Structure formats: C-alpha cells, structure tokens
Amino acid sequence: MKATISYTLAAASLVLFSHTASAADEQPHIRLATTTSTYHSGLLDYILPEFEKDTGYKVDVIAAGTGKSLKMGENGDVDLVMTHAPKAEASFVDHGYGVLPRKLMYNDFVIVGPEADPAKVAQQKDVFDVFKNIAKTNSTFVSRGDDSGTHKKEKGIWEQTKIEPNFGGYRSVGQGMGPTLNMASEMQGYTMTDRGTWLAYQNKLALDILFQGDKNLFNPYQVILVNPERYPTINYQGAKVFSDWLVNPRGQELINNFTINGKHLFVANANEK
C-alpha cells in the first residue's frame, strides 16, 4: 500500500513539474533590440539571468546598433528597444512607433587612440578641437559607420565642427563598437567609444583614453516599448514587465552594481528628474 501511495505521489509530482515546465516554455519570449554597447560591455549577460529568474520571462536579444534597433521597432519586429540616441528616439515616439519612453542609465563617450597621439588629442580643450585636429593632421580615425547611437553622436560632432569627414585618414567600417575598437588598435588610429565597451575591451587593445570629460560626450540610454496599437501581435505585456523591472529598484541596483575590473560601466538614472 505504501509503495502504491509513493508511486502515486511521484507520478503526480512528475505531472506537476511537466506542466510547470511546459507553461514556462509556452510563455512568449520578449524580443529586445538594443545598441551593441549594452551587449559588448557585458551588461545584458549580467542582468538578464536575474530578470528571467525573477519573472520567468526569457529575453531574445538582437544587438544591432541604435539606428537598426529603432528600425526593427518601426517594423514591429521586436517588442521594445534599448538605445542611446535622444533625437532619433524622440522621432520614434513622435511618429507613433514607440510608447512609454523611460530614462534608464547613462555613461559617457571617450576618445581613444595611440599612445604617440599624433593629432595631440590629449592637449585639446573640447571634443570639437579634438575632431578638428584629427582631420587637420590627416590622422587615422575609425568610425563605426553603422547608424548606431555612437555613430550618430560622432556625425553630430563633425557637423558642429563644419568639417566633412572625408579626409584621407577617415575609415568608415560599418561595424559594432567591439570590432571598431579592434580595428583602431590594429591601425593605431583614433575612435570614439562609449566608456562601457572601452572598459570591457581595454586590456586587449594597444590604445589609451586620450580625451574625456567634455559635457558634449554625455551618453544617455532609454528603454522604449513598441506601440501595441500599431502592432497588436507584439508581446507588449512581457515588454512592459521588462521595462518596469529595469526602471524599478531591482533593475537599477543591478545596473549600478555591474563592474569590470572594479570599475562601474553605467550609472542608473531612471528616478532622476
């Protein structure tokens, strides 16, 4: 009799476990399009397991740069975006593609280059003079050239210097931040990078930070949901759960706690006015 009861309980437990596992498997995944900096820096690898553990949702990440990420949102191919190009994000929301934009975190951009510093970047007073000197000395500058948030920021700086970036040393490579840093290191050229990816890659590169701290290099990130009225089949509920989790104390604490070699890569700012 005891053996029968034990077997029955075991069978019931197995059925319950199988049902729970099946329910988790059937729960719609959340599709996130994001800039490559959140991926290459290691931030998503750090926070997503905690989100999945807290909520049961799984997040499918497409790291494609801000421009391509927003385009995927416009096409309804993802459920939310995490990007860092304020003007493009505002347009995304204003045209009805995105809803509930929220501040998430920030870091900054830095200019890195060879120790020899042929363009005397380290001696300049602002980032506009940095770019002018790189062009004037025809030094190698490796641009992402991929319509990412970093690339948009770089283009904005060139526009403000009134210089067309078509000098001999300018290289547009159409790559993410990690590969761009590797190319700049191999070519002993300059590039502009977000600090997070730099900290993740710096030990592998023959480059140094040569210019930093200019207010014009501020780099804010937002999380924005794709508009469910435009695309009713997206996983809006899951995306909203993820967005809420990111901007609430649990997600914000994890973002602040993320470090590489003891250095913080991002500052959470969802609750700043």
TrEMBL record:
Ranges of residues in domain PBP: 26-249
Signal peptide positions (record): 1-23
Gene3D superfamilies with a match to the protein in the record: Periplasmic binding protein-like II (3.40.190.10)
Pfam families xref list: PBP_like_2
Keywords: Signal
Nucleotidyltransferase as UniProt keyword: no
Signal keyword on record: yes
Family matches, as InterPro entries: ABC-Tungstate_binding (IPR052738), PBP_domain (IPR024370)
SUPFAM superfamilies named among the record's database cross-references: Periplasmic binding protein-like II
Protein name per UniProt: ABC-type tungstate transport system, permease component
Organism: Vibrio scophthalmi LMG 19158
